[in-house]
Specification:
This protein is an alpha/beta fold. Helices cover 24% and strands 25% of the residues. α3 packs across α4 and α3 packs across α8. It is globular, with a radius of gyration of 20 Å. Bound molecules: zinc ion (ZN) (2 copies). One zinc ion binds next to loops.
Length: 336
């Protein structure tokens, strides 16, 4: 089979031929049709993430069909269309798992990071990592929903916001363009916040009722003027941009962070007191959360904006994503 691997941390992506892997106990082999390219693939490409061994095949936005079942797999059949995201399955025996908190599993595995992922014709994953793909959803559209989609949808639906509440999405990019759609379809009065005016028209088409240009307006003041945001979902990686929204939270309002940034937030602690405000992170979601995301997207016609490229062109597509030029998610296709 074809696979695109990283030989060592910092090395270029390279197309190689590999043996088709066999599923072990509790695992399935998936014939990959499409795999999204995510910014977090840089953890495999550049290293620095615990548990990566090289060579590794990146890719955790995998859509395809079950091709072979290992021993002991129940509830899945060959030919079923399935997706796999960041969540690579739970161990089932650690403390969080014993409490049913699978996303917090201490022995969690990640496709394309801790084992070979979806930049390939085939991938082997734990059956507990599988999400069923609805018939009406293409593999290409399903792929980004398995990371960027579940991350934003699951954070919003668990944010405590209810229909009609003012909810702001910070960033109109790979995550944000989905976050705006989900927020609008969940019935929130949706605000999009981005730099400049170039993305305003698109943000409104995706469902934003309001648009804040953070280069011309103070996002905190503008949100406050709109009545205060019950939730701000931060999808960007710019910590200063996140910090600038806190002044616009409603009483009991929350800044929910899904953008993976290593920069420190700069928020005067006193600013959180008057409104009893909170700043929280949100992990993406389990395989069932991914399945819910795919089902909700089919039900409400939420779709990612994608650019598809053949698997062999993964190196150029990855560079395009890293340069911020993708509109908005790059998806590799195997031709299967
Ligand atoms: Zn991702
Ligand atoms: Zn566990």
């Amino acid at each position: 089979m074809r696979a695109v691997q990283v030989g060592e941390a910092g090395a270029d992506l390279e197309l190689v031929e590999r043996e088709i892997p066999e599923p072990g106990r509790g695992e399935v082999r998936v014939r990959v049709h499409a795999c999204g390219i995510c910014h977090s693939d840089m953890f495999a490409k550049e290293g620095g993430f615990p548990g990566v061994t090289y060579p590794v095949v990146p890719g955790h936005e995998i859509a395809g069909e079950i091709d072979a079942l290992g021993e002991g797999v129940e509830g899945w059949t060959a030919g079923r269309r399935v997706g796999v995201g960041w969540f690579g399955g739970q161990c089932g025996h650690c403390d969080p798992c014993r409490r049913g908190d699978f996303i917090s599993c201490r022995n969690g595995v990640i496709p394309g990071i801790t084992f070979d992922g979806g930049y390939a014709d085939y991938v082997v994953v734990k059956a507990s990592a599988l999400a069923a793909i609805p018939d009406d959803l293409s593999h290409e559209d399903a792929a980004p929903l398995l990371c960027a989609g579940v991350t934003t949808y699951n954070a919003l639906r668990h944010s405590g916001a209810a229909g009609g509440d003012l909810v702001a999405i910070l960033g109109v990019g790979g995550l944000g363009h989905l976050g705006i759609q989900f927020a609008a379809k969940l019935g929130f009065e949706t605000v999009a916040i981005a730099r400049g005016t170039a993305k305003e028209e698109l943000a409104r088409e995706l469902g934003a009722r309001h648009y804040i240009d953070s280069t011309a307006q103070d996002p905190g003041k503008e949100l406050a003027r709109l009545g205060g945001a019950v939730v701000v979902l931060a999808t960007v990686t710019n910590a200063a941009a996140m910090s600038a929204t806190v002044g616009g939270l409603a009483p009991r309002g929350k800044l929910v962070i899904v953008g993976a940034s290593m920069e420190p937030l700069e928020i005067p602690p006193a600013a959180l007191l008057g409104g009893s405000n909170a700043i929280v992170g949100h992990a993406s979601g389990t395989s069932k959360d991914s399945e819910d995301t795919l089902a909700f997207s089919t039900l409400t016609e939420v779709r990612p904006m994608i650019e598809t490229v053949p698997l062999e062109e993964a190196p150029a597509a990855y560079e395009r994503m890293m340069a911020g030029d993708a509109r908005f998610r790059m998806v590799l296709t195997t031709g299967a």
